[in-house]
Amino acid sequence: MSGLGNGLTVKRCLTFATGLVECLCFAGAVFGWASLVFVLKTEGYFSSLCVNTTGVNATQVLDCSGQDEQFSLVFTIASFMNNFLTLPNGFLFDRFGTTVTRLLGTCLYTLGSLMLALSTAAFSNLLFPAISLLAVGGILFLMTNMQVGNLFGARRSTIITLYNGAFDSSSAIFLVIKLLHEAGVSLRASFLFLCACSVLHLLRTFFLLPRKHIPYPLPDEYTYGITCGKSNTPSLKQTKDNGNAQKTRGKMLLNTDDPVNQEKSFRECLMSRLFVLHLLWLSVMQLRHYLFIGTLNPMLQRLTEGEPSLVSRYINAFAITQLCGVLCAPWNGLIFDRHKGKPRAAGAQPLLPLWRQRSFPQCGFPILPLWETVWSGNGSVCSVFCAAISILCLGEWTSGWRSFICERRSGAAQPARLHPSSLCVPAL
């Protein structure tokens, strides 16, 4: 048994390490758009839209505003697809499991990389589908990797936030491509290399991830991936039965201590001030985020009067700051892991459980995983938070739909020793 336990530990560590590399090197590359645009302009993409205009003193000035508009449109469409398709992608993940979702993500990411490799200045319009495919494929990688935190119960929140931070920092991949281009490596070679890396995604899909989902809480001696011999993995039915039993026990705890409140309908949750305010807040944050990335290059062109060396230097500086995501985000997870099981002082009433009791009466869903995902330092994943709030209020019907918040939580179980309000985030 000790050999089996050591083997499982090694496999889980490999799953974690390869997932971190995948999120850091592939998943969020599209948000390094500012670095890629600099290279694309050098290669002459959409250069036919630049026209000569007459400036002051009758001087001829090259006006490339049309080119900038096309590049901004490419990123706008890609960012829209990245967020809009998160909802159906979550349904796909819940319905068909990890393997099918990752195969789709790998195909989309590979096809997008191949389109970029084959694109030229004469076929600049290939950027529209290529960048969108990269964005959607990347978010599928992140979505399927979030469940890896379930393998490490005590450090679950830390791993979730670390993966989110790595997703942010993966935008530096386009910075690497930019630096390689300046060193003489062609765009085609760089993106063909990304295509070849799809083999690693496939190997990880079959050997280091389950076919369906990683349950939480994790059963004893849980195994996953392709293994030799008879597997000791508990059946899906056993896992669901265990989760349902623990969910029922959690509801009994809620009913004994909480006042009886009528369960809110989907419409009531959708029209609640909490949902509307979060929707407004996230919309503004996402708009600022995407607007800055999409307009950074033309803004620098204007401020530096088109000096290429200065534009390149400032874009490199911005890309380096994006690397800080993987350094900052895990601190949120460490706070969650340290405090989520910590007993409170007598008479102390945490703020978030009160918020939960008012907003999600008898919802029966533990809010902690939701906050782990939202407050992880990742702007893209936050985009599904508002949709998740209203869906989670529907109760039993949505027990399998929780990967809309990029995380699977089978059974929604909590230890029986916890007070019902501990199902939410404890006071920090």
UniProtKB/TrEMBL annotation:
Listed transmembrane segments: 12-39, 71-93, 100-120, 126-146, 274-293, 313-334
Example of a GO cellular component annotation carried by this entry: membrane
Matches recorded under InterPro entries: MFS, MFS_trans_sf, SLC43A3
Gene3D superfamilies the record matches: MFS general substrate transporter like domains
Topology within the bilayer: Multi-pass membrane protein
Compartments, as annotated in UniProt: Membrane
Single GO molecular function: transmembrane transporter activity
Keyword terms: Membrane, Transmembrane, Transmembrane helix
Protein name, as recorded: Solute carrier family 43 member 3b isoform X2
Source species: Gymnodraco acuticeps
Gene that this polypeptide is encoded by: slc43a3b
